Amino acid sequence: MSARTVKIGAQSGIATVFLLLGGWALFGPSSVIELGVTEAYQDNTFLTRFALACFGAQAVLFGLMVLAVRWSARGFAVFAVLLLPFFGFNYWFHYEVPVLTSIGMLDFAGNVTMLVLAILGWRAARAAERV
Predict the structure, then answer these.
(1) How many CA atoms lie within 13 A of 9 on its CB side?
(2) Quick check: 19 and 60 in contact, CB under 8 A?
(3) Which element (helix H / strand E) includes 62?
(4) Strand partners, 26
(5) CA nearest to 60, candidates 102, 117, 18
């Protein structure tokens, strides 16, 4: 597999995570609340659904931008570093303040997937940029 193919695959994989999870939040905010948030923290008011759908719309927008822009090695590296605080978010809101259910921890799985893909993309982009 060429470095270019790995780079494109990594970038497409990152976009897919944003499009899937963001699309779920955009088009099914009530479902995200019901399945992803523990009962003690569930709030299914219009404003909560609206805010979650807005969050999903931003994730979908970013996913589409990931598909439209070519990332360099630096872009993959910066994305990987900026992703790290989200692991703290996942830990805190699952273990310390139990807001996220195990299904809500799909966010964590998405973050792990994107981090691995960012590292693979960075390595492939670095190799391609050397040529």
Answers:
(1) 11
(2) yes
(3) helix 46-68
(4) none
(5) 18
Long-range CB contacts (within 8 A, 24+) of 43-52: 52/25
DSSP string, 69-107: S---HHHHHHHHHHHHHHHHHHHIIIIIS--B-TTTTHH
The structure tokens listed for 66 are: 């990931």
Question: How far apart are the C-alpha atoms of 57 and 50, rounded to whole Å?
Answer: 10
Residue indicated by tokens 């939040």? 25
Q: CA 100 to CA 107: how far, in whole Å?
A: 9
Classify residue 37 by its DSSP letter.
B
| pTM exceeds 0.85 | yes
Contact 107, 100 (CB under 8 A): yes
Is the Cβ–Cβ distance between 12 and 79 less than 8 Å? no
Q: Tell me the pLDDT tens digit for each residue of 25-59.
A: 999 999 999 999 999 999 999 999 999 999 999 99
Place of tokens 């090695």: 73
Tens-digit pLDDT profile for residues 103-131:
999 999 999 999 999 999 999 999 998 87
